[in-house]
Amino acid sequence: xxRIAVVEGDGIGHxxxxxxxxxxxxxxxxxxxxxxxxxxxxxERTGSACDSGTIADLRSADAILFGAVTTPPDPGYRSxxxxxxxxxxxxxxIRPVRGEGFNIVIVRENTEGLYSGIEWRxxxxxxxxxxxxxxxxxxxxxxxxxxxxxxxxxxxxxKANVLKSDVLFVDIxxxxxxxxxxxxxxxxxxxxxxxxxxxPDRYDVIVTTNIFGDILSDTAGYLAGGLGMLPSANIGDRxxxxxxxxxxxxxIAGQNIANPIAAIRSGVMLLRHFDDTGxxxxxxxxxxxxxxxxxxxxxxxxxxxxxEFGEAVLREL
Amino acid sequence: xxRIAVVEGDGIGHxxxxxxxxxxxxxxxxxxxxxxxxxxxxxERTGSACDSGTIADLRSADAILFGAVTTPPDPGYRSxxxxxxxxxxxxxxIRPVRGEGFNIVIVRENTEGLYSGIEWRxxxxxxxxxxxxxxxxxxxxxxxxxxxxxxxxxxxxxKANVLKSDVLFVDIxxxxxxxxxxxxxxxxxxxxxxxxxxxPDRYDVIVTTNIFGDILSDTAGYLAGGLGMLPSANIGDRxxxxxxxxxxxxxIAGQNIANPIAAIRSGVMLLRHFDDTGxxxxxxxxxxxxxxxxxxxxxxxxxxxxxEFGEAVLREL
Lengths: 317, 317
Ligand SMILES: CC(C)[C@H](C(=O)O)[C@@H](O)C(=O)O
Ligand SMILES: CC(C)[C@H](C(=O)O)[C@@H](O)C(=O)O
What we know:
Chains A, B: Residues 3-313 form the Isopropylmalate dehydrogenase-like domain. The structure is a homodimer of 317-residue chains. By secondary structure, chain A is α/β, with parallel strands linked by helices. Chain A is 43% helix and 23% strand. Chain A has two domains: 1-90 and 236-317, Isopropylmalate Dehydrogenase, CATH 3.40.718; 95-226, Isopropylmalate Dehydrogenase (3-Layer(aba) Sandwich). In chain A, the strands form two sheets. The first copy, chain A, has a ten-stranded mixed β-sheet with strand order 2-1-3-12-11-4-5-10-8-9, sandwiched between helices. Chain A has a two-stranded antiparallel ribbon with strand order 6-7.
């Protein structure tokens, strides 16, 4: 038995996650799914978006399949995703972006940088501390180098021409790349966001700090036809959490028009996490065949609904 | 007499700035140009990239035309552009991006945020302080609202779902937009970097903090065919500084292949700064006609050299 915690979350999480879950269930009858409620909806109802009991439930699972949660910029509210990433120490956010002629994996540091949570007000200014630690940089660099060694090379995305904290980050990444014998280059994040669009074929594994990875992966989403396509894995030494890169998209929620591919592909990453490459490939192929038949959700120019897309994928399996 | 300080800087600055200068000289015989040397080249030769005498020279000018400087991530070296932006208090970095069906102006706060320069090492970590002040936010918000009032609407690019410092930034921008009667919306910077690519026609004036503006403008450069096309103005209450968005590009320097359009267009922004809309339009038209004839530098798929492109523009004038 493999126990999978399922968090639909808010908005379109309630639509895309059931699709991903049924696809996983179809290939893995041994998966036992259990629901965990977190998010803004729960917060509105109960006053708590996620408590220590929830975190314990998530810890008890062999893996977590997560939808999306709504994060209002309400000073009293702390993003659930950030809390979970922190509490489960999910330090590596892995975001593959693939398309015609390119195959990129963005490896985003997921626990520090501008997400330190160290913030304060003083007189007329508000401050946020960007923290780059040697330990935090080294573990994400190692993770990226392990990937890059199985693939081609490494790009270190940074802004060391302005940020001394990135001088440290780049130093550590260089050390790890050299130790692993991985060819590498460094690129400033602004130039990298443009160059990944102009020459996606030039990139393979990209490692970068937290908020730069956040921005870079959305930007690269353009290459894949939008956020509806992009899966991600948040991995630590003990826990593994899979979620689409997109958010809860309240503007399109409840209409059965959200693209479930990002969620299904997050399920594929979950399968690979259990070394189940056979089923991972089968699901990927089923998605590919469905798209090839012209079955698409509206964001891809089609007219198929979220549920119906899921049913089409199940038929291909 | 209008006195224009000319800083070629490093790399392709030595190639594109002479072109922009000769175009400006052709339409404005009253411009008196004088050279100011700053940058990495000067630093290597004299040990100083820019000193108080240089800053005084720049201050003495009616406007500054700037190329690009090389910024190595050398701990002992501070970027000259950053020093000048700081010393001249050039708080608004204005970056227009135009193309088929869209006309966007990115208004980037240019003096604080992650560029505060407040950085330190402690035990195993390196810290950079992101500072958002009420005063700094208000003056950039006003600048953006003034622009937006003459145009259509305002988008406030931020990451207030994670950064409390951006809660302040968004608050102030809202206040100013409401006061000015400018329609506005807020967008998270990651989603904005993707959406500007997917739907550039939906954007008009975008105001954002320093490093987000840095990344967003390079990303948007994709829409305009790359950085070779993008001009910028760095404006304060007393000084005005015009530079292409691109860097010194050491990899292509000295080959007469750099695209001088960004530099020429920075000159156009300089002309508009002096309310010389007639000549500004004339130069823009000359660039357009040159491109329409198929005369292009290699980055745009052509074979024309930097100097030759400049000569072609001069012939159109
Ligand atoms: C929702 C938000 C807190 C989150 C982030 O900033 O990491 C999201 O943008 C992401 O990329 O997962
Ligand atoms: C060279 C660098 C310091 C600069 C910046 O980060 O502002 C550049 O990227 C820019 O956009 O003008």
